[in-house]
Design goal:
The protein is mainly α. The chain is built from 14 helices and no strands. It binds fe (ii) ion (2 copies).
Length: 310
C-alpha cells in the first residue's frame, strides 16, 4: 500500500485541481473560520515550564514567544497525526471483514478528515518539512502502512487513539482560546468511539506467533519513546534558546517532573492493554521491564542524544 506513505500525498498538494477538491471538502465542514484569534493557545504552565529555572528566567516577551512556538509545534504534530489517521481509516475500510466494519471505518474516516480540517484551518495545509525529525510520526506512518489489520486494531485504535483521548482532552482543557478548546472537545468524543470500537474488535486469537512477536516489538518501541520523555518540548526549547547544556537538561528533567509524567504515561499504556484483554502482551512488556520508570540519569542521556542527532 505505497499510497499510504505520507510523501506521496504531499506531492499532490498544489495545483488547480487541489484547490477545487479543497472546495468540495469545505462543503463537508461547518466551520466559520477564525480559530486563531489569539496567538498563544497554551501558557508555559501547560508545558510544565513555569516553575523551572529556565522558565522563570525568561522575560515576558521570551515567555510569550516560547509558549507560542511550543503550541504551534504541538498543533503541527497533531495535524500530521490526523493525516496518518485518514490513511489508517482508508486502509482499515478496505481490509474490513464485514460490511458493518467497513461502514464503521468509513464513518471514522470522515471524523479523521474533519479533525484534519480543524488543524489545517489553524495552520494551513500540512507540509512535508513539518514532519522532519519526529520519531513518533515516522513510527506511526510506517506502522500504518506496513502492518495487517489485527495488529493495527490493537496498536492504533486501542493504544494510540486511547492515548489520543487523554492528550487531546488535556490540550482542550488547558487551551486559552475557547473556540479551539471546543474543537478539541469534539475530537475527544470521536476518538472515544474509535478507541472503544478497537476494544471490541481486538481479538488476540487472530494473531499467529510471528504477528504476536511483531506486535510486541511495536509496543516495546512505543514504550521506549514514552521513556524518552517529552522530546517535542525539550527540542523546541533547545532550538529557541540556541542549545541546552547538560545541566539545563538535568534541571528540566527534575523541575518539569518528567519522571512523574513518564510514570503516568507508562501506567496509561498498561491500563489500555488490560482494557483490551491483551494480558500476555502486557506481561511481556513487564518482563522486558518497560513499564518500570527509567532512572532520571537515563532520561537525561536519552534527551541529550536525541538533541545531538537533530
Ligand atoms: Fe483523529
Ligand atoms: Fe481517531
Amino acid at each position: 500500500m505505497k499510497n499510504l506513505r505520507l510523501e506521496s500525498i504531499y506531492d499532490h498538494l498544489d495545483g488547480d485541481s487541489s484547490k477545487r477538491i479543497d472546495q468540495f471538502c469545505r462543503t463537508y465542514t461547518s466551520s466559520s473560520g477564525g480559530l486563531l484569534e489569539s496567538k498563544a493557545l497554551w501558557n508555559l504552565d501547560y508545558f510544565g515550564l513555569s516553575k523551572t529555572d529556565l522558565g522563570t528566567n525568561l522575560d515576558p516577551s521570551q515567555r510569550a514567544q516560547i509558549a507560542e512556538s511550543l503550541g504551534s509545534s504541538l498543533l503541527r504534530e497533531a495535524q500530521l497525526i490526523e493525516v496518518a489517521g485518514t490513511a489508517f481509516t482508508a486502509k482499515m475500510s478496505l481490509l474490513a471483514e464485514t460490511q458493518d466494519q467497513r461502514s464503521l471505518y468509513s464513518f471514522f474516516a470522515a471524523d479523521e478528515a474533519r479533525h484534519l480540517r480543524f488543524f489545517d484551518e489553524m495552520l494551513g495545509k500540512a507540509q512535508m518539512k513539518d514532519r522532519k525529525n519526529n520519531l513518533f510520526l515516522d513510527y506511526l506512518e510506517t506502522a500504518i502502512s506496513e502492518n495487517p489489520r489485527p495488529i493495527l486494531v490493537l496498536l492504533v485504535q486501542v493504544l494510540l487513539e486511547g492515548w489520543g483521548i487523554r492528550h487531546y482532552a488535556t490540550l482542550g482543557r488547558e487551551c486559552l482560546n475557547e473556540k479551539v478548546a471546543e474543537g478539541f472537545k469534539a475530537i475527544v468524543l470521536d476518538e472515544g468511539k474509535h478507541h472503544g470500537s478497537g476494544l471490541v474488535l481486538f481479538n488476540p486469537k487472530e494473531l499467529d506467533s510471528p504477528l504476536t512477536k511483531h506486535l510486541e516489538d511495536l509496543v516495546a518501541e512505543f514504550l521506549m519513546m514514552i521513556r524518552s520523555g517529552p522530546v517535542l518540548v525539550v527540542s523546541e526549547l533547545d532550538r529557541a534558546l540556541g542549545g541546552l547544556t547538560k545541566k539545563q537538561v538535568e534541571n528540566l528533567v527534575e523541575q518539569m517532573q518528567i519522571g512523574e509524567k513518564i510514570e503516568s504515561d507508562l501506567a496509561l499504556v498498561s491500563h489500555l492493554l488490560s482494557l483490551a484483554g491483551a494480558d500476555s502482551l502486557c506481561m511481556k512488556m513487564t518482563e522486558y521491564n518497560l513499564f518500570q520508570l527509567p532512572k532520571s540519569s537515563e532520561v537525561v542521556s536519552t534527551i541529550l542524544s536525541q538533541l545531538a542527532s537533530q
